[in-house]
Amino acid sequence: MANIRTIIKNPRFERELQALEPNVRRADEFLEGVEEILCREPQTGHRLGNSHVYFLPGWTIDLNVYYTFTDNEVILLSICPMAPPEP
User: Fold this and answer.
1) How many CB atoms lie within 10 A of CB 26?
2) What confidence score (pLDDT) does residue 10 get?
3) Higher pLDDT residue, 25 or 76?
4) How far apart (Å, rounded) are the C-alpha atoms in residues 56 and 86?
5) Could you tell me the pTM of the whole model?
6) Pairing mode, if any, of strands 46-47 and 63-69?
7) Where are the alpha helices (DSSP H) in 5-86?
8) How confident is the model at residue 86, as a pLDDT?
9) If we measure between CA atoms, which residue out of 69, 61, 71 comes closest to residue 17?
10) Long-range contacts of 45-54 (CB under 8 A, 24+ apart)
11) 8 vs 23, 31, 40, 72, CA distance in Å?
């Protein structure tokens, strides 16, 4: 059975989430899904280069979640809108 990690939201993540919630529909549902996935399979996201930071793009909402993890925790670092595609 996979290790279930504790989800921790750092202060920056909390501030960004607070700023987004009035403007982004379904943010709570998206975040619940993210937490459910990451607590079990944090390596599901995309690693940023050789760093210990990963990101998970939204699948029903235009947001990215940036995080890092250990054997026991997933630390949510940032949540921000996806950059629009370049013309």
Assistant:
1) 13
2) 96
3) 76
4) 20
5) 0.86
6) unpaired
7) 11-20, 27-40
8) 55
9) 61
10) 53/77
11) 23, 12, 14, 11
pLDDT in tens, 27-61: 778 888 899 999 999 999 999 999 999 999 887 77
Reply yes or no on domain 6-81 having CATH 3.30.2310.20. Answer: yes
Across residues 52-77, what is the average pLDDT? 92
Residue with tokens 């909390």: 14
Residue 20 pLDDT grade (very low, low, confident, very high; cuts 50, 70, 90): confident
Neighbouring-strand partners of residue 76: 9, 67
User: Beta strand pairing status for 46-47 and 54-57?
Assistant: antiparallel
Beta-strand ranges (E) seen in 1-87 are 6-9, 46-47, 54-57, 63-69, 73-81
